[in-house]
Amino acid sequence: MKKKYYIYLSFFFIIFNFELYATKSSAKDYSGIGEYRFGPNVAESTACDLAFERAKNNALSNALGEKLFSQDFMHCSESDNAECELNKTTISTINGRIKKIKKKQRTLAKKEGFSICIYEIICDITKPKKKKDANFHFNIKLNKKIFRNDEKFTIDIDPSMKMFINIFQWNPYISEGINLTKIFPNPYESNNEIENKRKIPDEKMKYSFKVKYPHETQDKKYVDDYLLILATKTNINFLDEYEFKKLQETISEIPNNEYRIEKTNYEILKN
Predict the structure, then answer these.
(1) What pLDDT score does 15 carry?
(2) Is residue 17 part of a domain?
C-alpha cells in the first residue's frame, strides 16, 4: 500500500514540476523603447509617462508580432497635447499584458527649446499559444469624429462572420483611474449577436448614445473619449464596469483565436 502511495506521489510531483517548467518557459523577455519630445508647456512627468507607455506598447508589439496602436485613432486636435497622446497609447495596450517589468531606464535629454524623455525597458511577456483567426474580424465606423456636447453618436459594425459584440467606453477626464464602462449590450438592447452589418444603437430602439463634455475640465477646447469594441466567437457575460488591468486579465483568459478588438476615439468640442 505504501509503495503504491509513494509511486503516485512521485508521479504527481513529476507532473507538477513539468507544468511549472512549462509555464515558466512560455514567458520570454522582450525589450521596448519609447520617447516623447516636449516643450515648456508640457509637464516632465506627463511626457515621461507617455514615453513609458510607448515603451510598453513597443515591447508588446515585438512580442505579439502586431501593432497595437489603432489606425482608427484620430490625431489630437490641440498641438503639444501630451495628455491626449498618453490616453491613446494607454488604451492601445488593452489586448496585451506585461507580466513583469524587469528593468527600466529613463533618460532625459535637454535641447534648445525642447526636451526628450526616453524609456528603455525589458519585460516578461507571455505570448498567446494560438494565432489570431484571420477570418474573424470586423470594421467599425462612427457617424462623426468631432462632436459638440449632447450630440448623439452611432457605431456601424460590419462583421466578417457571426460574432458577439461588447462595447466599452472610457472617459479619461471623468473617471478616476482608468475605468471602462460597458455601453452595449444594455437593458434597452440586449441582443449582441451580429452576423450582418448593423448600426448601434438600432434605429428601432428607443434610446441613444450622447457625448458629454466633462464639466470637471474647463481649460480644454477639445477632450478625447475612447471606445473599445470587443468581438468574441461565443457570448461572454462581461461586467458593466472594469478597471483597466482587470479587463486586461479577463481578455487574456480568452483564447487568442476566439476574439478580436478594435479601438477608436472621438473628440468633444467645448461649447
Answers:
(1) 36
(2) no
